[in-house]
Amino acid sequence: MHHEHRKKLLTLFKDEKESILFLKGGTVSHRYDTDFEYPFRQESNILYLTGAEEPDMSAVIHTGTGEFTLVIPRRSAQYAVWMGVVRPAEQYRELYGPDHVIYDDELPDWLKKLGPDTVHCLPGAGEDIRQFGLTPETGHLKDALAWCRVLKTDEEIAFLKTAAAAANQAHLEVMQAVYPGAFEYEMKAVFDYHTIRHGQIHAPYSGIFASGPGSAILHHTGKHRRLGDGELFLVDAGSEYHGYASDITRTYPVNGRFTPLQADIYDIVLDAQTSALNMIRPGNKMEDVHLAAARAIVTGLRDTGLVKGGTDELMEKNVFALFFPHGLGHFLGLDTHDVGGYPKGTEKIDRPGLRFLRARRIFEAGMVLTIEPGLYFIPALLEPALGDKTVSGYLNEKRLPELFDFGGIRIEDNVIVREDGYENLTTVPKIRQEIELVMG
Ligand SMILES: [Mn+2]
Q1: Nearest alpha carbon to residue 233 among 263, 212, 259
Q2: What is the CA(248)–ligand 1 centre distance, in A?
Q3: Residue positions annotated with a catalytic role
Q4: Tens digits of per-residue pLDDT, 364-387?
Q5: Rounded Cα–Cα distance for residues 51 and 334 (Å)
């Protein structure tokens, strides 16, 4: 798998016969000035190219011969005492299949022997290369890796499916465990239990377990609130398998029964997601899909009487962005917000809502992305809008202030773009009747 990734990357350097690519792996980090080590997770680009999961590694790839040299740290006997058995070089050869294994103190001589024309590295590694007396070229490798990582191979998709499967189950377990009076952290514990028991120890992001008004905070971090009867609960959480992430969101009533208003708002978001999913196929663009979801949201809000005016006008005046202020989705892979959303030369769109889109690429088969429309009642956005004469005429000035503690609803699935449309990796119930059935 990683050999294939290196071959793919080298096709972008095929005119350079005497260059090298230098990748610096991750190092362990500590909590402030203490010896407490944070769990180590390899840097995604070197993980993509080598599969090497340990800290303090680097990789040298020759663009002419394709040879891959894994650079490993020379560990002391003390290291073995505290951290466990030190693997001999031979074992790394078996594990990751490099053409050469060298120790880090041999790297300067190794580079001298290679005598490359150009040393390509990521922007953060330039200083290391200068220390070896070479001149780094930091302008190409990052974009080249992003280009490679956007289109997933079948093996990568298999890993993404394994990550999705664990998160699917964990979401379902949380949905069944929720009850009025539970703490948000209890639900995080349920989720973590059901992902970690599959060996998926790393979370790809810290997860949102937000009840009541907290569900309208896009990156809500607190988890100490008690879930109230009659409130909504939003869970945005995923898991990670061999570095590959899942990222799923569901929102449902704490007591298992939607109120008529919650049901209306919920169905608007589900409608928006369905409109978006129906547009996922090669050739379409994320911003158009985003706008289709936004149209569904303002249309739904108008039909429930919360906003006023024609759909075109509500779109033109960016009224949708008051309720759906974030991007529709992002690429998913070794990083949750995966690389490659903005190829070189593509700018962000300076328009409310669209400004935060994390991807503007035209869809191609093999891309993996999230589709996650949301509808929120955010006082920080609605209060000023209600006082702004250019938009207040579109808003129901009586009912909206009553919804300032409603929170928000987001529904997020992970999909693969296929030749004939898309494949959805997310199986957690999202139809209202199904949710109510599962919640008993
Ligand atoms: Mn997401």
Answers
A1: 212
A2: 7
A3: 35, 219, 236, 247, 326, 330, 337, 372, 376, 410, 412
A4: 999 999 999 999 999 999 999 999
A5: 11
How far does the centroid of ligand 1 lie from the alpha carbon of residue 133, in Å?
42
Q: Which strand (E) or helix (H) includes residue 100?
A: strand 100-103
Residue 341, both tokens? 């959303």
**Residue-wise pLDDT tens digits, 58-97:** 999 999 999 999 999 998 888 888 888 888 899 999 999 9
Contact indicator for 163, 152 with CB cutoff of 8 Å: no
238 Cα to the center of ligand 1, angstroms: 9
Q: Is the dihedral of CA 356, 360, 363, 369 positive or negative?
A: negative
At 330, the amino acid letter reads H
Residue 365 Cα to ligand 1 middle (Å):
20
Q: How far, in Å, CA of 3 to CA of 271, rounded?
A: 42
Neighbours of 224 (CB within 10 A): 7
Whole-number Å distance, alpha carbon 329 to ligand 1 midpoint, is 6
Cα 370 to ligand 1 centre (Å): 6
Going by CATH, does the domain composed of 154-438 fall within 3.40.50.300? no
Distance CA 250, CA 237 (A): 9
Structure tokens at 240: 């990670």
Fold assignment, 2-149: Creatine Amidinohydrolase; Chain A, domain 1 (3.40.350)
The tens digit of pLDDT for each residue in 386-414 reads: 999 999 999 999 999 999 999 999 999 99
| Closest-CA residue to 246 (of 41, 48, 424, 408) | 424
> Phi and psi at residue 413, in whole multiples of 5°?
-115, 160
Contact 202, 377 (CB under 8 A): no
Domains of the chain by residue range: 2-149, 154-438
> What is the CA(373)–ligand 1 centre distance, in A?
10
Tell me how far CA of residue 143 lies from CA of 62, 204, 260, in angstroms.
Answer: 18, 22, 49
CA-wise closest residue to 353 among 303, 304, 295, 312: 295
User: Which element (helix H / strand E) includes 109?
Assistant: helix 107-114
